[in-house]
């Protein structure tokens, strides 16, 4: 197997491992639109990285974290409905990022790679970064698992039980921002949310407990990475979209299995 394919596989599995349980919370809390907004803002991080001449992955991560904090502050002001606010920020940041990149550095970067992923260009440093971030996010999720489940089931009841709802919700948004920042390399800005949501949605129909759903979502995500890379290698498909199509096939299979069970 070519070395570039092994690096791509390692990077994809690292993202799938953490996208599974995090995607479960995105499905439970109906945060898919939040993921889209974070993903679209990643292009602004690329722009700032080019302007400041710093590592682009670090710039994207910082940009996503700052936008997540800004969203938390704007949600507290309650001047606009959350879905309206997310819709405005999502498309505005994507458009601003595209315009800024075309003006500041025309031809300097592979824009299609950022939009649809460039996993086959993954380096050893990228793999190390992805797995370090994945390990940190997984440790944080394990630590926050019970409070996150509590606020997902019923925020008011969780508050009565002593859970710091705002802090836990903010932590979830920041963790999602980190995962989106590292997933951009794998499936691109326009497809990140699919890798978060589709495996979790498929796992929901095959699971009986939250923990089982999280593990199943990670397994489906890992299978999607393997299947997408295989399709890309054999049929010369673009790797990022192929991974998402493999995840979609897994979702269709889960629908069929759940129907057979009933």
From TrEMBL:
GO terms for biological process: response to zinc ion; transmembrane transport; zinc ion transport. Pfam families: ABC-3 (PF00950). Its main location: membrane. The chain crosses the membrane at residues 42-72, 84-104, 124-145, 186-203, 215-235, 241-260. The keyword Cell membrane applies. It is found in: Cell inner membrane; Cell membrane. Involved in the high-affinity zinc uptake transport system. Keywords: Cell inner membrane, Cell membrane, Ion transport, Membrane, Transmembrane, Transmembrane helix, Transport, Zinc, Zinc transport. GO terms for cellular component: ATP-binding cassette (ABC) transporter complex. It is a multi-pass membrane protein. Belongs to the ABC-3 integral membrane protein family. This is High-affinity zinc uptake system membrane protein ZnuB.
């Amino acid at each position: 197997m070519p070395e570039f394919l092994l690096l791509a596989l390692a990077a994809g599995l690292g993202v799938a491992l953490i996208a599974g349980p995090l995607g479960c919370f995105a499905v439970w809390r109906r945060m898919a639109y939040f993921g889209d907004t974070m993903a679209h803002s990643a292009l602004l991080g690329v722009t700032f990285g080019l302007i400041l001449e710093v590592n682009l992955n670090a710039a994207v991560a910082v940009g996503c974290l700052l936008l997540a904090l800004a969203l938390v502050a704007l949600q507290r002001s309650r001047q606009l409905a959350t879905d309206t606010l997310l819709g405005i920020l999502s498309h505005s940041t994507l458009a601003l990022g595209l315009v800024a990149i075309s003006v500041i550095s025309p031809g300097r970067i592979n824009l299609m790679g950022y939009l649809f992923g460039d996993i086959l260009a993954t380096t050893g440093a990228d793999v190390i970064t992805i797995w370090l971030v994945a390990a940190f996010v997984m440790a944080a999720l394990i630590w926050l698992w019970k409070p996150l489940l509590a606020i997902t089931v019923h925020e008011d009841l969780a508050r009565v039980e002593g859970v710091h709802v705002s802090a836990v919700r903010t932590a979830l948004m920041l963790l999602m921002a980190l995962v989106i920042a590292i997933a951009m390399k794998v499936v691109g800005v326009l497809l990140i949310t699919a890798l978060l949501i589709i495996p979790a949605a498929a796992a929901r129909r095959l699971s009986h407990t939250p923990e089982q759903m999280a593990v199943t979502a990670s397994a489906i995500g890992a299978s999607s990475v393997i299947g997408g890379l295989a399709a890309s290698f054999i049929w010369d498909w673009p790797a990022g979209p192929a991974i998402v199509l493999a995840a979609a096939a897994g979702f269709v299979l889960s629908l069929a299995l759940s129907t057979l069970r009933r």
